[in-house]
Amino acid sequence: MAEKFFDEQTEQSQVKAEIVSKYFWAWAKVIISVQKRNPHRSEGRIAYIDLFAGPGRYRDGTKSTPVKIVEKAIADPDMCARLVAIFNDRDPAVTSSLQQALKELPGVETMKYQPEVFTGEVGPEDVKELGEGRLVPTLFFVDPFGYKGLSLGLVNAVLKNWGCDCIFFFNYNRISMGLGNEYVSEHMDVLFGKERADRLRARLEMKVDPVDRELFIVEELAQALKGMGGQYVLPFRFRNERGTRTSHHLIFVSKHPRGYGIMKGIMAKESTTADQGVPSFEYNPADKRMPMLFELSRPLDDLKTILLDEFAGRTLTMQQVFELHNLGRRFIKKNYKSVLSEMEAEGLVKADPAQTARRKGTFADSVKVTFPPKKGKNP
Q: In which domain, by residue range, is 130 found?
């Protein structure tokens, strides 16, 4: 079966492409601003690499992610002069389609470095080549069909250099089934690492609940990535059309909290639901048909209790609270501002300057928050 998953699920395909292209834009702007302050850094180039690029357009005419990326570069003078775009796919018909779509983009000839398209399987030699060289700041997107070619080594080969981030998309069902299939054990070992893959197999043999099974698999993958230096890992889940099962995950990996914060904001906006303003980090087509289901939990009410416990007896700025607490959690900055404002009004914390001295409805990053000590302990 050579068809790509998103050939048939166009709506989800567009969301995936939007997340990647929006992050590329924000990431490129940050990197370019640093390069302008340091003219000799990275030779003034940035790169976008996609070794599983797919076609130029999908069957309904929707633009693919590579086309969206190059379009953004053409439209921006700084990017047009700096972007090195490298695409690859194993299918000659697919790469031919992509080459044609890129060639037809208005203004593509103005790019200093013309987009390059290659045809071939991704294997250990590619990992070795990426690992041995020093990359310019690179956004690396990995979107394999299934799992062949996807490995920790491939991700790590890119992340090692300054300004390099990785986004990879994987078919959850194929990996879940692959962990129990001895014929593809080698692929699972290079994806999770041998020791971690064996531990995961042993746990899954206990016939765990499907929800827990997914949590175990994604958690192990995230921890493996962190172990290779990708400290900031952020997953985004895609559900099937009926909303009954997970189909894919999009996982962002970075070594820098700024990239994590930018991607968190992008994924939050693409989430189909947000309970009390807390995004689900999930695209679920069924959410639009079943809006009541997501209101059964109250995450911001829980956040109040968590903050009182975690920061008891401490005085921190709003920004410090956010930076210390948001990693690995669904909460975004406006959630913390909202909760701290409510906690101040309820007398649970003290703020400096107080609300009476601030513009109504605001809670600036610099506002200092004093949390009461835990009961039974001296202040």
A: 5-292
